[in-house]
Amino acid sequence: MKWLRAARPARIARIAIAATVLCGVTFGILDVANPGAGLALRVVASWQLFPAVGRAIATGTLALGAAALLVLLLSLVFGRWYCAALCPLGTLQDLASLPRRNRRGFARPRTAMRVLALVLVLGAAAIGAAGLASWLDPWSLFGRFAAYDLQSVLRLAAREDLPGLVPSTVLASGAAVAAILAASFASGRWFCGNLCPVGSTLGLLNSLAPLRLRLDSGECIACGECASVCRASCVDSAAKRLDPSRCVYCLACLEVCPTGALYYGRPRPAPSAPASSRISRARFLAALGGGAAALMVALVPGRAFASKALGVRATGLGAPFPVLPPGARSLERFVGTCVACGACISVCPSRVLQPSLGQLGLIGLMAPRLDHGVSYCQYDCIACIDACPSGALGRMGLERKRLTKIGDATLVRDRCIVITNLTKCGACAECCPTGAVRMVAAGDGLPEPVFTSSICIGCGACHHACPVRPDRAISVSGLAVQALAEPPSTKLFDQGPSVPAAGGAGTAKGAVKDAFPF
Amino acid sequence: MDRREFLRTIAAMSAAGAASAFLGGRGLGRLFAEEPAPAGGRSPDIVAVKGGDEVSRLDRALQEYGGMGAFVRNGQTVAIKPNIGWAQDPRVGATTNPELVKRLVEHCLEAGAKKVWVFDHSCDYGPSCYQASQIEAYAKAAGASVAPGDSSSSYQEVSVPGAVTLKKMRVHELALEADVLINVPVLKDHSGAGMTCAMKNLMGIAWDRETFHALGLDQCIADVCLFRKPALNIVDADRVMLSGGPRGHSGSRYGEQRMLILSTDIVAVDAASAKVLGKESAAFGYIAKGEERGLGTADTAKLDIRRLVL
């Protein structure tokens, strides 16, 4: 009974890793005020396959996509362990399927559905619509669920405000995960074996892997114990075979198999070849190849279609260009890379980052944008850049972020209440971190706002503070391509009052009154 | 105090306030004006200390009142309102010096305060301001509780009798609940109000900051001061930001004043502080409007000022 002793610790280890990953990422998204939370989020997120592929595409190098490459290579050699340990949505499904864990059975593979889902996701990613593709990516689905649903519940319980959050965001994110968990309650890892693009890719690699979970049909007595505990519905005990493209490495079968027919490793000598499995794999490969070819053909018109029909149409009608987070660089690059997982939005302290619902076009659905009605980008903060797992927000330090121009303000003097109503305001200049808006006295009148575009970074503090409604006197629009602002001059505020030097400590006792200006 | 208990207290306080306002024909502002008077003879209108450091200045100034016991009695709760408006380092001078806040908390606790709270409705993201200004860490080290000011649920709507523009506003529960309110502004230049000191600092007990700007800062600042008169105003005029305020910029100029100015009269303390900025109180509309509403005396020539040099 050697295999039993080995299977149990392995299974415990995989559950421990899966639980750590799930807790780490949940902690990272929920306890954003904790300094360790960002690190936990980043460590887990950096290994997620779909954002990692995005990172490789975004940077055009393999350096930042190394995690993705490593996951793929390791899976090709050692099998599909990723889904058992590193995917938070997978572990969440395991939890949802616990009540029916011993009442399972084999289900036939749905190859057409899997290939279609994979091709759709790859196609969407290829035409620059990563956000759309993300609706089947387990990391993005989980991230949105944690950011918009779990975090909202916690904040409401703590009597905190939820500025800017709209119900449709909460409902869409929650409904997607609820549907997956319902399927999971009914039949285990149904999503992973039938829809998940990451699962399909890794399943394919697992089928080719020399080391993987196998069923030795010579040892199998077709007792059905394994099938009753298999959450992937991938062991056909009657036919004495295991579908390697759907196995998620939960290891439950290893523990219950009475004969040791299920094992991890290389094929045992003289195997009775599972012919039907080979046919299934061949069909899967052929379908995938066909899909990829179709994809290549559709790519060129697809990209044009994506940017025209699904992209932002703000340039017409004079609508303001959306403001993207620092490091997005350009709208096209951003929506092509962002997986809309909500990690940046969940860590944004001021909540100025909000998921877009059409503002970035259908192509960038749920990708972050700045909503200056809610708040403004904090000058000394790079939380979103640190949290981004996909490379959609390019890495940079605080010094560079303070100069990164994500938008530009427009001051409309005809709307400013200082000028039109002689109301003492100055809210915009008060909170401008660079001095791009200053109050300058014109003669004897009230100080009026004066704007300098070259040092404006588009943080939106002025826009947020301006009390004029319905249209604000100062507002910020985004830039098609982000730029670098000039550093503010140290002579910006030279027109202030000059103060007579007052005597300090050491003033003679008789001259105490002279030490004070009153 | 749990939420329900708190709401009950507020309801009782509002009822008591309304009843006494009705019976005595006096507003809440006047009601609260009857804070404990300084013990042992008449104290000066203003105590100003120059030299030394934040701690020695505060210690020396409080001696003039016979100690913190003149303002805080045994078992009372105290709310301290520093300026924590910006996520800036203390050296920028945009926020109240954390060492001053720490020493003040210690004085309150030594005087027998049951509980000391520190809070502000920050302009930048609240927790970042509390952290960058170091006020949270210093206040906690001295034994105070630091309360958030960035959640609308902490604010209750009140009516302000005598107010001209802001007859109703939402104020922080601590400004309603605490037995003693101590106002600890930092003196600096302000692009909108001209100067920010004690009166402008009290704007941080209110939620509707935007309304202050929309309706005109001067009258709204005077109105918020009518809501509750702080037991004591302590002005931090150590390194005074003379330009580029209130946030502070790399080009801001400073005056090294090493001064602390105390008064129970919020108008008088602002009038004196204006001179530290090199201006006259007449330059600031809210000081005149505050004096009009009977909040204090702006003419420093008429005030009994105790000047001390360390």
In this structure, how is the largest beta sheet of chain B organized?
10 strands, mixed
Radius of gyration of chain B: 18 Å
Identify the CATH class of chain B.
Alpha Beta
Shape of chain B: globular
Radius of gyration of chain A: 29 Å
Tell me which protein chains meet in the greatest interface and how many residues each side has.
A-B, 55 and 59 residues
Query: What structural category characterises the helix and strand content of chain A?
Result: mainly alpha
Oligomer: heterodimer
Second CATH tier, the architecture of chain B? 3-Layer(aba) Sandwich
Describe the largest sheet of chain A: 2 strands, antiparallel
Mean pLDDT of chain B: 89
What overall form of chain A do the CA principal axes indicate? elongated
Query: Percent range for helical residues of chain B?
Result: 25-40%
pLDDT under 50 segments of chain A (min length 5)?
A: 503-508
Number of domains of chain B: 1
Q: Averaged pLDDT of chain A, please?
A: 85
Beta content of chain A comes to: 5-15%
Secondary-structure map with pairings?
The complex is a heterodimer of chains A (518) and B (310).
Chain A: H1 2-30, H2 35-45, H3 49-59, H4 66-78, H5 82-85, H6 88-96, H7 111-126, H8 130-133, H9 138-157, H10 167-187, H11 190-194, H12 197-208, E1 212-215, H13 225-229, E2 235-236, E3 241-242, H14 252-256, E4 262-265, H15 275-310, H16 331-337, H17 343-347, E5 353-355, E6 368-370, H18 383-387, H19 398-401, E7 404-411, H20 417-420, H21 427-431, E8 437-441, E9 447-451, H22 461-465, E10 474-484
Antiparallel strand pairs in A: 1-4, 2-3, 5-6, 7-10, 8-9
Helix pairs in contact in A: 1-2, 1-6, 3-4, 4-12, 6-10, 7-12, 7-15, 9-10
Chain B: H1 3-24, H2 28-33, E1 46-50, H3 54-63, E2 77-82, H4 98-110, E3 115-118, H5 126-132, H6 135-141, E4 145-146, E5 155-159, E6 168-172, H7 173-177, E7 180-184, E8 186-190, E9 194-196, H8 198-201, H9 209-215, H10 217-227, E10 232-241, E11 254-263, H11 266-276, H12 285-292, E12 305-309
Parallel strand pairs in B: 1-12, 2-3, 2-7, 3-4, 7-10, 8-10
Antiparallel strand pairs in B: 1-11, 5-6, 8-9, 10-11
